[in-house]
Write a structure and sequence with these properties.
By secondary structure, the chain is of the alpha/beta class. It folds into 3 domains: 161 residues, Substrate Binding Domain Of Dnak, Chain:A, Domain 2, CATH 1.20.1270; 144 residues, Rossmann fold (3-Layer(aba) Sandwich), CATH 3.40.50; 245 residues, 3-Layer(aba) Sandwich (Rossmann fold), CATH 3.40.50. 48% of the residues lie in helices and 10% in strands. It is built from 26 helices and 15 strands. It has a 6-stranded parallel sheet, with helices on both faces. Strand 6, helix 14 and strand 7 form a beta-alpha-beta unit.
Length: 653
Amino acid sequence: MAKPRQIIRPEDITICESTQQMIAKARRDGVELFFDRAEEVKPCPIGENSACCKHCSMGPCRMNPSDPYKRVGVCGATIDTIAARNFGRMVAAGTAAHTDHGMAMLDLFRGVIEGTVKDFEIKDTLKLNEVAESLDIKTAGRSVKDVATDVYKALELTYTQVDGEIPLVKRVPKKTLETWRREGIVPRGAMREIMEMMHRTAMGVDQDYENITKQISRTALADGWGGSMVSTDISDILFGTPAPVEITVDMGVLKADQVNIIVHGHEPILLEAMMISVEAPSLKQMAQDAGAKGINLVGMCCSGLDVMSRHGIPHAGNFSSTEAALVTGAVDAMTVDIQCIKQDLHKVAGCYDTEFITTNYRAKIEGAQHIPLDEHDPMKCTDEIIIKAIQRFKNRKMAIEIPQKLAKGVHGFSHEYIKYMLGGSFRGGYEPLNDNIINGRIRGVAGVVGCTNPRSKQDFSHVELVKELIKNDVLVVQTGCSQMALAKAGLTTPGAAAMAGRGLAEVCETVGIPPVLGLGACVDNSRILMAVSEMVKTGGLGESIADLPVAGCAPEWMSEKAIAIGQYFVASGVFTVFGHTFPITKGTRFEKHLFSDLEEKGFGKWGFADSPQEMARLMIAHIDKKRRELGIDKARERVLLDMADRRALEATA
């Protein structure tokens, strides 16, 4: 007789109370969410360890993760070759995602310059000039259009160049760049690196895991210092460089008496266009005539983070809460573009009569409505979406249950603003940050970034890791879905300094900032690269990124983009810890290469841990090691969680 399925309690799935409430409602409504499927569909134990190769029809060949060198594939490939190929293809896919995103922003930029795109404009000429100067493009006495044209031509090489070095390596610290050149991993152009990565990992091509790893790093660097950085720069130029703004988060941002429209995805174009449409007097009147008090535009996932950081648009939740928001019955339309969009959102939306609309030609969903967004006439798409949402509001039939949880946070800390806030307009710079690291008030800096994953308890690792880091005087910067986890936990307000160690708290209270700085969407990890480059440039903390007392972590990662991000941080010199799982077979030479050998070559290295406490321990130990190497270490004990903290952890476990 089949064993009855065990129903997991919502509080064991997520620490987000709004999502817990909606999981319970979905079960009452008979609606399946991805949390349910995560329990039914177990990971393949061989694929999870990257011990399977299916790159030709002689296989798939499955190795034994517990004895990986016992056999080889049909072609003779060893576990090291197989694992390196699989890892490389994940990096290629993740790099392609960010590179294509950046290319779309560059296309929009060209349209604005040429005048074929009329609904957007260059908003931040200061950022335009800063980007131009970083590329050695003259700005003095020249028109905005001429400077922008030269910037476009230079940045286009990031994608199309087949030889030489991508333009933005001019921003890389000198010693770090010397390491890349010595190892032969400076990216030429993103398209070439992705193409070569896919070729070299095909059957019968590159069969040396160390040589494959070089191309893995080269491809990933084309993302971090190429596609992602271009996307961030162009978004800032067109839509404005973020500066701190107070935002409201969680599902309580939905309003029962308003037309609720959620925009979910990654490219900011859709949501920026939607912001223009909702201000149209005719659409406002239409909503009022339908009985609504207004049109409530809400962001979700990374496109939501993008406009949240720039404009303070409210944010409903991260990746794991996208279905749950629909279960409220209050969403009149959810519109999506690219990346991190679950296919079953269309099905869940249908259960609640919510209009579900795809807008990007690259990302259609079977059975979903598709209203194409043309950047030359974006309001044709966004106006139609709003009209559909108003009609749904007018004809609402579903019972509405909106969780009343709300949280406030301060987000929008671009690396430019960090420079400004540390010294003002005339003395802006990273000297106060470096000085406080040197004197020990700040132990180091940690980037906590990335996704949420249904195989991890939603938000738990992000929140507990960051609590542990700031308690130990580690300043945290963050991007992606991590921001929503920490904002809901109250960690992104200046008052959160009370939860930090004495030294970090003193600095935060003096400057008036939180101990956790939200920098934007996952593509904006390039802001962290710029920040650590500024730390090196400022001086006193070594000559390369690898010298800095910094570390990174993605506690609940799930996307190939995360692997690409992790690898470009490792290749840049940052110790990077992943949680939940890691796509590698333990005990192999390839594992040792990633987790140890790369550091010996002057790069960073990978780390892995199951629990947030162990993640914090690894990161703090690395930061302390770098402090010792710099000669700025002081006698200090790592702060351990006290019994009250332990009881709080047990209560949420």
